[in-house]
TrEMBL record:
InterPro entries assigned to the protein according to its UniProt record, in alphabetical order: Beta-lactam/transpept-like, Glyco_trans_51, Glycosyltr_51/Transpeptidase, Lysozyme-like_dom_sf, PBP_transglycosylase, PCN-bd_Tpept
Keyword Mitochondrion in annotation: no
UniProt protein name: peptidoglycan glycosyltransferase
Functional pathway: Cell wall biogenesis; peptidoglycan biosynthesis
Domain Glycosyl transferase family: 63-227
Record-linked PANTHER family: BINDING PROTEIN TRANSPEPTIDASE, PUTATIVE-RELATED, PEPTIDOGLYCAN GLYCOSYLTRANSFERASE
Penicillin-binding protein transpeptidase domain segment(s): 313-544
Catalysed reactions listed for this entry: [GlcNAc-(1->4)-Mur2Ac(oyl-L-Ala-gamma-D-Glu-L-Lys-D-Ala-D-Ala)](n)-di-trans,octa-cis-undecaprenyl diphosphate + beta-D-GlcNAc-(1->4)-Mur2Ac(oyl-L-Ala-gamma-D-Glu-L-Lys-D-Ala-D-Ala)-di-trans,octa-cis-undecaprenyl diphosphate = [GlcNAc-(1->4)-Mur2Ac(oyl-L-Ala-gamma-D-Glu-L-Lys-D-Ala-D-Ala)](n+1)-di-trans,octa-cis-undecaprenyl diphosphate + di-trans,octa-cis-undecaprenyl diphosphate + H(+)
SUPFAM superfamilies in alphabetical order: beta-lactamase/transpeptidase-like, Lysozyme-like
Transmembrane segments: 6-27
Composition bias type Pro residues, residue spans: 621-637
EC class name: transferase
């Protein structure tokens, strides 16, 4: 009897081995030939760094860079061994004891084909196989695990494992996971954090510490206990780790730095082409300034956005050489990844006027040239100041500071809309601009980035710049793939005109529409802008150190509740610039000197033609007054929001216009809501600026525009 049992037991064992071998051969034949097997290349990671070397974001399929096991704290890999594969260093890829335990659970109904897989088997599954749970897949997994053990050392296998497994939330590899959940490198992971990471292998999505902190902590305690039982850590270390569980960092992965990172990715294709390995991209972004800009925008919108009907905003801050120091593309990246700073085209309103006045200066005017601020009728279009009142003869400096629309239009028509467009393009505006009369009031759309870049020549002395965000690209091993060299577009404004424009735009902050934007101790200049029906509110201002633009509005272009350039944008700009310039050496703007010997005595004849052929109530432009002393005129009431009352006594003063002008009301005089484009000859008058815009006509020159020629 005993002999028979032995015989049949031996026979069945032989057949079992033969059967297992046959299955192995069969399923193994469905794998690539062993001599052709190779570990798949890990998808490349792009580590995007700030100018100070701080990690801003990772981009790529893995969510983080690979890391060597020698760079990790010793307890981190041991945490994975303790909870996932205690016999890792003693088995040869497949652990019979583990398989036996898994089979027992399967037979007793306490689990399916799970458990029993070694770290090597898990790696094989991640590298070569799908996630299906079948007998065939388990057999192939075992075959591949044996191959891995033959091909690589235990530490190499463990390093591959730690860099390839999925940790949830789009993070592949321990470095990506530590950055994602705890905000720092795996090189500095604590014991408690290491236990959480190892615990994620059971259920990455379910046990993510930022979603299920209680579950993550409970699982981490199991890992720490297992580590102590295996002798990987002392009892004292275990108690300390259990007493101080890891806490996931809040808000990671959703900050405004991701807008900058997305822009970097857009630029990389043109910088280095295809990416086939891990790279490190060093940018111009200053993490401190980025955080300040993000905070200033979010806090202002949280506090006043509802009051003014504003839901979105963008901030661009560059140095005078074009390096982007902060780039905030929206209120909250987690809610909207659309980058308004570089992709949203909006009407700049009066923030476009500096290009109009620069064109005027380059055609012989000076800051003290006088033009009439009065009613104007151009083939049915009647641009007005916001207050519907006029100041009569005013200098160009005063007209720009107070954002007087009729003067801007007169200057634009004198030099010609095409000259204005050419000037804006020369300084850095890249968008298409319509060369019609309303261009003087900023009716053609631009992006915040290009508008800010076009202001840079005023801050740097007249040199055109290319806004840039990438300074260097290296491989993970340190090989340089790209190094930015200093490059500018050369001089785009002559020094005397830079001096004139800075003199004029300083008045905007001293006595004009942006008085709230004054920075104590700094020479600053800039221009506000508000588009039709208060759809867009802008302020672009600069010092010798930074050029910063703020845009506010709504994504659907719906009107705000009278948000204008002189209120919220100026407040955000001042908050940001006040902190950004803290500690920086004070330096003056390039103002230089200029002469008014060539100043015109009367306006160009075109001003009279406007009245003759368009029906405007025209009076000859007066002779300029004696050259005034450089002192600030009384402050305007323009930069008061319609809903606010200024607290400072001097902010309630009004400007007394010349005798021919009606008294100015104490209300905001910022920008005329830009009108409809100039209609074609013989067409009906355009709709009110508050009711819509008509398509821009095709024009060949200003005389055709005025006289209706084809």
């Amino acid at each position: 009897m005993i002999g028979a049992l032995f015989y049949w037991g031996f026979t069945l064992s032989i057949w079992g081995v033969v059967g297992a071998g046959a299955l192995a051969v069969y399923y193994g034949s469905q794998l690539p030939p062993i001599d052709q097997l190779a570990v798949p290349k890990r998808p490349p990671n792009i580590a995007i760094m700030g100018s100070d070397g701080e990690l801003l974001a990772n981009r790529g399929d893995t969510g983080g860079a690979a890391i060597r096991i020698s760079e990790l704290p010793p307890y981190l890999p041991k945490a994975f061994i303790a909870i996932e594969d205690r016999r890792f260093y003693s088995h040869w890829g497949v652990d019979p004891q583990g398989i036996g335990r898994a089979l027992l659970r399967n037979v007793t109904g306490r689990g399916g084909m799970q458990g029993g897989s070694t770290l090597t088997q898990q790696l094989a599954k991640n590298l070569f196989l799908t996630q299906e749970r079948t007998i065939s897949r388990k057999i192939q997994e075992a075959i591949l695990a044996l191959w891995l053990e033959h091909k690589y050392s235990k530490d190499q296998i463990l390093e591959l494992y730690l860099n390839r497994v999925y940790f949830g939330s789009g993070a592949y590899g321990v470095e990506a996971a530590t950055q994602r959940y705890f905000g720092h490198s795996a090189r500095t992971a604590t014991l408690s954090e290491s236990a959480v990471l190892a615990g994620l292998m059971k259920a990455p999505s379910k046990l993510a510490p930022d979603r299920n902190p209680e579950g993550a902590t409970e699982r981490a305690a199991q890992v720490i206990t297992a580590m102590a039982q295996e002798g990987h850590i002392s009892e004292t270390m275990a108690k300390a780790a259990l007493a101080h569980p890891a806490q996931a960092a809040k808000g990671l992965g959703a900050g405004s730095a991701n807008y900058a990172a997305d822009y970097v990715m857009d630029m990389l294709d043109d910088t280095i082409g295809a990416i086939d390995q891990d790279i490190v991209v060093t940018t111009t972004i200053d993490p401190r300034l980025q955080a300040v800009a993000e905070g200033a925008l979010k806090e202002e919108l949280d506090n006043k956005g509802a009051k003014y009907g504003v839901s979105q905003g963008a901030i661009v801050s560059i140095d005078p050489n074009g390096a982007i120091r902060a780039l905030v593309g929206g209120r909250d990246y987690s809610e909207s990844q659309f980058n308004r700073a570089v992709s949203a085209k909006r009407q700049p309103g009066s923030a476009f006027k500096p290009f109009v006045y620069l064109a005027g200066l380059e055609h012989g005017m000076t800051p003290e040239s006088v033009r009439e601020d009065g009613p104007l009728n151009i083939k049915g279009w009647t641009p007005e100041n916001y207050s519907h009142e006029y100041f009569g003869p005013v200098t160009l400096t005063k007209a720009l500071a107070l954002s007087l629309n009729t003067v801007a239009v007169r200057v634009g028509l004198e030099v010609g809309p095409k000259a204005v467009v050419k000037t804006a393009h020369r300084l850095g505006v890249q968008s298409d601009l319509q060369p019609n009369a309303s261009i003087a009031l900023g009716t053609s759309e631009v992006t915040p980035l290009e508008l800010v870049a076009a202001y840079a020549p005023f801050a740097n002395g007249g040199v055109g710049v290319q806004p840039h965000i990438i300074t260097r690209v290296k491989t993970a091993s340190g090989k340089t793939l790209y190094q930015r060299k200093g490059s500018v577009f050369g001089r785009v404004i002559e020094p005397q005109y830079v001096a004139m424009m800075n003199t004029m735009m300083q008045e905007t902050l001293l006595t004009g529409t942006a008085r709230k934007a004054a920075l104590p101790g700094w020479q600053a200049a800039g221009k506000t802008g508000t588009s039709q029906d208060f759809r867009d509110a802008w302020f672009v201002g600069y010092t010798s150190r930074l050029v910063t633009g703020v845009w506010l509005g709504n994504d659907d272009s719906s009107p705000t509740k009278k948000a204008s350039g002189g209120n919220l944008p100026v407040e955000i700009w001042s908050r940001y610039m006040g902190i950004a310039l803290r500690g920086a050496p004070v330096a003056s703007l390039p103002t230089g000197s200029w002469r008014s010997d060539a100043e015109e005595v009367i306006a160009k004849p075109l001003d009279e033609l406007i009245g003759i052929f368009t029906g405007a109530d025209h009076q000859p432009a007066p002779a300029p007054p004696p050259r005034p002393q450089r002192q600030a005129p009384p402050p305007p009431a323009e930069n008061r929001a319609a809903e606010e009352t200024l607290s400072s006594p001097d902010e309630t003063a009004t400007i007394l216009p010349p005798p021919r002008a009606r008294a100015a009301r104490t209300r905001e005089i910022d920008d005329l809501l830009p009108p409809a484009d100039v209609p074609n000859a013989g067409a009906a008058p355009p709709p009110s600026p508050r009711r819509g815009r008509s398509p821009a006509p095709q024009e060949k020159n200003i005389f055709e525009q005025l006289f209706g020629g084809n």
